[in-house]
């Protein structure tokens, strides 16, 4: 295989655009000087349309999990009843975080590959009127499910006074997000997925009512105290040294998103999802999720006639193509293709063409080119629809 | 002034070496694949001599303060008596973190600009035999003091069973560090100081006995639970998505340190300190700290006949040279010159030559070139001593 060539098609970390790489290598600056202040001032309003909010988006140095923990320890008081809607590995992460603290944690377990059912949540909230915070994953990375957070938000507010906290790590920047309209109180994302950056930043938007709760919350916390980030952000600053090189990159990411138009970014991801799913169907690859539950950023396939680990190994060794395996009990049973961030329909076509060769080499009976053709057809249909 | 030229001589963030910038822009990789594992495997043994330990160094995505909080919440149990030795703004940060949790926090306040007095600490520990953890800053960035952590460590272990936790954020990688020999139980640093990287990583070394305490510590924590980082590190992995671009950079930082030799890195910082202090004396600039208390990484000057903010403004505007002001009650009263990480005697000479021009423009009566000559003399003396 051609040396020094690699195709990263896992559901994050994702490839970094060259102009973003370049932006991140600008000479370092002081974190309390005019340039840093101006940079944060420039970022603040431009993050809002990505989240679909008028509220401030806090910028914290850390992994996505730091953002999830910040959401938990700022929203819930010790002793609170909280509800975690778990549709996969990242729903379970919310559960583990809650279990590390003094909360009464309820969990609705949803079978992996399915989306949460709003009616079940409504019923649960009616039966447990003391729940103070509801946690849901938006895109469940481990299964490629996009949960109906709009409907869940509507139900949470209709049936309770709970805060509604959403993990958008593997989709914000790639899917439609209307945080304010949908009644999301806390929305978290990470830098290394649809935001096209290396890992190391977590971005957290907070509603006014959630901020009021956070200001009165006695839960001990320091580095992850979002109220201090909020106070400093209003002065275009941060409480602790910001990850400046990632902020340089974030500025260029927002340039790219604005040039394309955020609506077009969302449509591009929809197209990539539909292309990938059509190709899988054409190749006889069973999809883990229903169309109505499928995320625009990642697609999971559950083959019944070959070992997905063997396929992954061939693709990696022969072409430098990385796709993801399954997590926890789906390990060895599924594979996942990421199509988010710095990823285009052209990349999807390449991925599918290599996937076909990989399938051929595992011994699976397929018609070469058939998946690509199906994806091409979807592409032209989406193109026509837009024009 | 020449456009696009800037000299960052604050005590962190510090300039990034070009080869480190380059390393950080390598194409993104999967965080759970072979390359990431090999990278972490390569980093682990090579961090040890920088800290002066045989123990593992945990790599956490976050600011230095995340590392300090990790040190606190892993070392101290709820209800514990702890002692903070506060010699400046970053000693106070330890205090603030401790005050956010359920600890009985004792504080020894040391006047800003002086180092901690080991005899006073010994006396304090004898009077308070229930103290379980002692927190000290190594280099106090706000004053340019290097605290005698070797002597403090010796005293902590002689007079108590407390863990000894050290904030080495603004000096590790630039000063001699013998964590194991000096009895340091937890040693923390950040990426954006002498480690020559952008902010966003905190590195935390933990002694065996501290690790045992951490494993039994019921203090609630999740993202900052160092026992999970330790478990994963032994398998060349991390519990949460690592800040991979910074790890690419860290690998190259270690290449640079190994090429120079860590002993030589330490000597270079000693030389830069002595050059800076000699120049200040030659120019009649009062140093905030005594020679015996001075840090090799940052020097603070407390002028009595001009406004340091005016000097800083001239240097920034005319030459693009950033030096730091004072923090908290020293704001407007001192200025600080950083000389750490990607900084050489040649850079110190340039900084002093510009400082002289700046002083001249503030109206201070100085003999141009006199500070540079004093620094040059120190340089040649140090050179001769080494040969």
From TrEMBL, chains A, B:
Q: Specify the protein name.
A: Alanine--glyoxylate aminotransferase family protein
Q: Which family does the record claim for this protein? A: Belongs to the class-V pyridoxal-phosphate-dependent aminotransferase family.
What molecular function terms (GO) are annotated for this protein?
A: transaminase activity
Coiled-coil parts of chain: none
Aminotransferase class V domain sequence ranges:
28-328
Say which domain of life the source belongs to: Bacteria
SUPFAM superfamilies annotated for this entry? PLP-dependent transferases
Q: Does the keyword Methyltransferase apply?
A: no
Checking Pfam families in the record gives: Aminotran_5 (PF00266)
Listed cofactors: pyridoxal 5'-phosphate
- InterPro entries documented for this protein: Aminotrans_V_dom, Aminotrans_V_PyrdxlP_BS, PyrdxlP-dep_Trfase, PyrdxlP-dep_Trfase_major, PyrdxlP-dep_Trfase_small, SP_NH2Trfase/AEP_transaminase
**Keywords in UniProt for this one?**
Aminotransferase, Pyridoxal phosphate, Transferase
């Amino acid at each position: 295989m051609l040396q020094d060539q690699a195709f990263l098609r896992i559901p994050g970390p994702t490839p970094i655009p060259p102009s973003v790489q370049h932006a991140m290598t600008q000479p370092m600056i002081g974190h309390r000087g005019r340039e840093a202040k101006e940079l944060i001032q420039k970022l603040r309003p431009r993050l809002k349309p990505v989240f679909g909010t008028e509220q401030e988006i806090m910028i914290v140095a850390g992994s996505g999990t730091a953002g999830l923990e910040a959401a938990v320890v700022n929203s819930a008081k010790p002793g609170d009843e909280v509800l975690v809607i778990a549709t996969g590995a990242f729903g379970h992460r919310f559960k583990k975080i809650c279990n590390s603290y003094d909360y009464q944690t309820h969990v609705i377990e949803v079978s992996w590959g399915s989306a949460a059912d709003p009616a079940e949540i409504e019923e649960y909230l009616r039966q447990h009127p003391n729940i103070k915070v509801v946690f849901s994953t938006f895109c469940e990375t481990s299964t490629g499910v996009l949960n109906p957070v709009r409907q869940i938000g509507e139900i949470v507010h209709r049936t309770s006074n709970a805060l509604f906290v959403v993990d958008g790590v593997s989709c914000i920047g790639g899917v439609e997000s209307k945080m304010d309209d949908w009644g999301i109180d806390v929305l978290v994302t990470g830098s290394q997925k649809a935001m096209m950056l290396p890992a190391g930043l977590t971005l957290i938007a907070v509603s006014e009512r959630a901020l009021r709760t956070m200001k009165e919350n006695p839960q001990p916390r320091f580095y992850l105290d979002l109220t201090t980030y909020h106070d400093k952000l209003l002065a275009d600053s941060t409480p602790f040294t910001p990850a400046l090189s990632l902020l340089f990159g974030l500025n260029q990411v927002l340039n790219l998103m604005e040039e394309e138009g955020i609506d077009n970014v969302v449509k591009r991801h929809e197209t990539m999802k539909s292309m990938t799913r059509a190709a899988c169907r054409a190749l006889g690859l069973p999809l883990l999720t229903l169309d109505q539950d499928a995320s625009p950023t990642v697609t999971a396939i559950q083959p019944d006639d070959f070992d997905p680990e063997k396929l992954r190994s061939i693709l990696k060794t022969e072409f430098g193509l990385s796709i993801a395996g399954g997590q926890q009990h789906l390990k060895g049973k599924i594979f996942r293709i990421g199509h988010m961030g710095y990823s285009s329909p052209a990349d999807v076509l390449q991925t599918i063409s290599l996937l076909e060769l990989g399938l051929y080499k595992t011994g699976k009976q397929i018609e070469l080119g058939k998946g690509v053709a199906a994806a091409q057809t979807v592409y032209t249909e989406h193109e026509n629809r837009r024009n």
